[in-house]
Design goal:
The protein is 22% helix and 29% strand. The protein is α/β, with parallel strands linked by helices. It binds flavin-adenine dinucleotide (FAD).
Length: 437
């Protein structure tokens, strides 16, 4: 059994949704056999970041169809009907178990072969499991990960079954931090355990981290840093205690694990060139096989702004932009072939009443500005940030509590590589330095 399509998008996450909209905008409705999306998930593409934010609210949480792509970019809401109406075949709940790049075919878990002329790989990433680090307990009833709707439903269910209980959050990255905030909102006592010196170790400076850790502490969260959970004690299928490497025992009614992600590249190992944990692509998001594009979390692409170095991002904005770019390049629109992508790295998070954005690269010297000492009880909302300066230019910028204009201004400073004054002046002027630019 086999089916043939001109274009196949493999994966039905954020990048897939934005790719589909771009396709229709450039090409109009798809003709029969022209475009399909194959996804292991049972629902049409949605804005994944909602899962750790609105979805986990104790009351009135966000539910589909409200957060299908592309609402996250203030664009059209693409429900399942939208795909039908535009001739795009959505093959949902279907896992691709192997790919043959030479033959241009994909094999589904139900034994069907799907062939393509052009393939867009948008398989995203998966959450790393405790077992991959020598731990245990992933299958326990009250151990939660967070990557898809099923995970989010399990998390919501667990939160509702232990009001006032104890949650252990393993990992101090954005999943751990966002889930911790959601657990607090659901009136659960939270202890976050991670091996580093401070939270969000890959992005935050110690000073920025200290602000957020103090804020979380004022909300009742306990941090246990510099150690890991070595095992989980399980009774009748449920974790009861988390045992730390230093021997401490923490009672647990539920556990949330956020220990990182890995790009879903396995289908293409040995067939496409890989780099930095992802599928290597050129500035058109084209892989080492000219018929295959890769976008979103799975793609490692050259970033002009960072001197053309190859990078891979697990950022929703990156998924949206790389998807649009790949479609433009693959369709080779009459308005001319798409140039190389020119991406400004952008990441954000929202927790409690806080909200921050980061642009660029956190390389070089970090210069902080604003008041990093305020707490959750302060009368005015916190506003502070940092610039990263390298070779006299602003290469990265972080801002908590900015207005749209201020975020735009820091993004512009990074994109244009604004010349930075000496650190003391930059720290003193802070946001005013870029806002008046
Ligand atoms: P995904 O959205 O993960 O989609 C991949 C798709 O491929 C899935 O549908 C998957 O089922 C499918 N798939 C994989 N393998 C197969 C296969 N073999 N067969 C069939 N289908 C397959 N980023 C930010 O910038 N800010 C945030 O605040 C933020 N919050 C986040 C919160 C959560 C809980 C998570 C999990 C991520 C968050 N991100 C955030 C990251 C952002 O969501 C990702 O960068 C984005 O989803 C990547 O899009 P993608 O399409 O590449 O991958």
């Amino acid at each position: 059994m086999g089916r043939a399509f001109t274009y196949v998008i493999l994966g039905g996450g954020v990048a897939a949704g934005y790719a589909a909209l771009e396709f229709v905008r450039r090409r109009g409705d798809a003709a029969p056999g022209e475009l399909c999306i194959v996804s292991e998930e049972a629902v049409a593409p949605y804005e994944r970041p909602a899962l750790s934010k609105g979805y986990l609210l104790p009351e009135g949480g966000a539910r589909l169809p409200a957060f299908h792509t592309c609402v996250g970019a203030n664009d059209q809401l693409l429900t399942e009907d939208w795909y039908n109406e535009h001739g795009i075949e959505l093959i949902l709940g279907m896992k691709i178990i192997s790919a043959d790049v030479r033959r241009k075919t994909l094999l589904t878990s139900s034994g069907e072969t799907i062939s393509y002329k052009t393939l867009i790989v948008a398989t995203g990433a998966r959450a790393l499991k405790l077992e991959e680090f020598g731990g245990n307990g992933s299958d326990a009833e009250n151990v939660c990960y967070l990557r898809n709707i099923e995970d989010a439903d399990k998390l919501v269910h667990q939160m509702r079954s232990c009001p006032g209980g104890n949650a252990i959050v393993i990992g101090g990255g954005y999943i751990g931090m966002e889930c911790a905030a959601a657990l607090v909102a659901n009136k659960i006592k939270v202890t976050i355990v991670f091996p580093g010196k401070h939270c969000m170790g890959r992005l935050f400076t110690p000073k920025i981290a200290e602000f957020y850790e103090n804020y979380y502490t004022s909300k009742g969260v306990t941090f246990i840093k510099g150690t890991t959970v070595s095992s989980l004690e399980i009774s009748s299928g449920k974790v009861t205690t988390a045992i730390l490497r230093d021997g401490r025992r923490l009672p647990a009614d539920m556990v949330v694990v956020g220990i990182g992600a890995r790009a879903n590249t396995a289908l293409f190992e040995g067939q496409l060139v890989m780099e930095k944990g992802g599928i290597k692509v050129n500035g058109k998001m084209q892989t080492s096989d000219a018929s295959v594009y890769a976008v979103g979390d799975v793609a490692t692409f050259p970033v002009k702004l960072l001197g053309g170095g190859a990078r891979r991002f697990e950022h929703v904005d990156c998924a949206r932009r790389t998807a649009r770019h790949a479609v433009a390049a693959a369709l080779d629109h009459p308005s001319g072939p798409a140039g190389d992508i020119d991406y400004l790295p952008f990441f954000y998070s929202r927790v409690f009443a806080l909200s921050w954005r980061f642009y660029g690269d956190n390389a070089g010297e970090a210069v902080h500005f604003g008041d990093l000492s305020s707490s959750s009880s302060a009368s005015s909302p916190p506003k502070f940030g940092a610039f990263w300066v390298s070779a006299g230019r602003i290469t990265g910028a972080f801002l908590e509590g900015g207005s749209p204009e201020e975020y735009e201004a820091i993004a512009h400073a990074v994109r244009s590589g604004a010349a930075a004054p000496d650190a003391a002046r930059l720290a003193r002027e802070g946001l005013a330095f870029v806002v008046r630019e």
